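Protocol step 4 of 6: structure prediction from sequence.
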Amino acid sequence: MSTRPLSTGGVPRIAPIRRERARARTSDRVYDELVSAIRNLRIPPGASLSETDLSAQLEVSRTPLREAIARLVDNGLVSVVPQVGTRVERIRLQDVEEARFVREALELAAFAAACERPDRDVNTMRILITEQERCHASHDLSAFFAADEALHQQIFVLSGHSGIWTMMQPIKLQLDRLRRLSLPEPDMVRELIDEHTAIVDSLEVGDIEGGQTLLRAHVNRVRRYGPMLREQHPDYFAD
């Protein structure tokens, strides 16, 4: 398994902040872009962040950038050390485990609630699995990760509790980074697609017990590959 930070010349690839979203504060858009880059490993664990470089890439002034970085510090994704600089926090497996615990409890409950709704429609989930197959064939790991997230979000949508998925996002950031780090392994991606298919099959027929068993094993994957990834990428981990 091999993965390297998706960057050029030591500077992470992040998108400029455009102004078409007039109702959103610039600092909010900067925050969203940086969170996305950290979650998807475009900015890897342990990376130093230069305000000068980030300001130039995002095409924003220092003030909204500093506001966004302060929020990243509050969420435990970034640390600022006086006289040293700003650095992306490394992955802590304890944080990953706590996020996994929360996600398992909430997603199993959402799955049961979705199965109990007679109007559930898994067509969107089927489309997302087709998209995952396309991403797997084209080795588009970033798009696969996005489709993976969208599929799990649909469980909460079908349960009638879509807001819980939004609430979970800050909690599972460390978990998401570990999941993204695992994706370069082709066999891992294939297994994920097969498991997604089985979970959707169970949801379609309303098999709560069988689906929850599949979903629990799926969510608990990180317990198996977390220590392995820590050995392969020791610079990415804090413990």
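Step 5 (inspection) to follow. The mean pLDDT is 90.
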